[in-house]
Amino acid sequence: MEETTTATAPLITNDAVVLGILVLILTVIFTTASSERTAFKKFYTVVPSLLLCYLIPSLLNSLNIISGEQSGLYQMASRYLLPASLVLFTVSLDLKEIWKLRHKAGLMFITGTVGIIIGGPLAILIVSTFAPEIVGGAGPDAVWRGLSTIAGSWIGGGANQLAMYEVFKPNPNLFSAVIAVDVIVANIWMAVLLFGAGRSEKIDAYFKADNSAVNDLKNKVERYRKSIMQIPTLTDIVQIVGVGLGMTGLAHFFADIIAPWIEVNAPYLEQFSLTSKFFWLVVLATAFGMLLSLTRARKLEGIGASRIGSLFLYIMVATIGMQMDVAAIFSQPGLFLVGIIWISIHMLLLLIVGKLVKAPFFFLAVGSQANVGGAASAPIVASAFHPALAPVGVLLAILGYAVGTYGAYISALLMQMVAPQ
User: Coil, strand, or helix at residue 37?
Assistant: First the structure.
């Protein structure tokens, strides 16, 4: 995920202090969320705790108390804690049950991709009817060139976004503006999905969705967890952290070899994001977790593997929240309008198809976030429903990397066709 820019230095610049603040925020949220007090219970029935873990850091960033741009915590969390959490989530994976979700999960992912591809051109068409200057321009200043990079980001990820930048060569100043649109709109959308995750049962009932496959997986994981659960010792905790961070180190080791080798020997594979170290880091961490699920390591779930994985992921959530500066919306209001219309079309298409096939909200949310947020945030949205579902988000996000460049290229050509000259 790209980062927005801030004009002045934040109040707090020491990352050790910022990390302490973020973890204290998580502590307060989880403590109050588990409180028996009526006021807290009522509050958290309206506002999901995961959403607060995300929004409070974004508020601190917007007030320039901390800075997502100047902090190295997101880099740390995405490169160390995210892959470790993927290992710990997948170590108890039931591949047979995950496979049962493939049809509707795949359909909603593809629907989300199509929504991004056509959403950009339709947003340009709509805005051009009343403010053509917002979406016009010529040469490198043509707004559609900048928007092509959003398409790359929202279908695949950072590597696909940079691929579109290299292909269509937007003006660097324009590129900086659309990065702000990309980050803010994607973060607002993620907040909406997290809010919806807290109300998924009501949404599913309203759409008469069949969520039996998702519930079967959650229930099976819960039964398995209870059957092997025990009070963890220090040795148990060390084993869990050792497996998570050990496999993360191994994933980094191989990613540092594989990505540069492909870049030198098969550069044409860049279009599939196969030259990205982060891509290989996510793929390898997930693969190692899956392999461990076939061994005795699967019993680590009984001593808290997914709970420690969740802790890592919640810290990741807080660092993602740090990337959002709500004040940036007012610097380019026209482009933000395009982004809001674009994501709304994506949402509308998902709702229509989801209603037709009676897909539970889980598939809509994860299919969308696997496109818009990629591997860094798709497992976060998935785990908001249940930690056992995090691997579904990862697998779909990996698919997004593969199709991101092609989908974004098609979207860019369509935007070029409809953009005012």
Answer: coil
